[in-house]
Design brief:
Helices cover 75% and strands 0% of the residues. With 101 residues, the protein is mainly α. It starts with a helix and ends with a helix.
Length: 101
């Protein structure tokens, strides 16, 4: 139980940190030159690439984090509600075996 709560908290912290990583800078002034505009476009393009790569794992990470704080009845309800949509059946069966065996 304590280990599950610990892992659940780690996943929540990871998700929170990842969300902060994608926040746009709000304090900067608008670019004034072509060179600054190009730099800003390159920075945004890089952020989009990182976000795209991360997004493929973000939902799965959230589902696993939620799983670690659930009882079997809650997992059953989560299956019905689509909480584990991003987790494969094999991955979920391994999680259940590891957590409840």
């Amino acid at each position: 139980e304590a280990a599950s709560r610990f892992i659940h908290t780690l996943f929540l912290d990871m998700a929170r940190g990842a969300a902060e990583m994608f926040l746009a800078d709000s304090g900067g002034a608008a670019p004034t030159s072509h060179q600054e505009l190009s730099l800003t476009e390159n920075t945004m393009q890089h952020r989009f690439q990182v976000a795209k790569k991360f997004a493929t794992l973000f939902e799965k990470s959230q589902a696993v984090g939620k799983f670690m704080a659930m009882r079997l009845s809650e997992i059953h309800r989560g299956l019905e509600e689509g909480v584990f949509r991003s987790v494969t059946a094999r991955e979920l069966s391994h999680l259940i075996s590891a957590a409840f065996d």
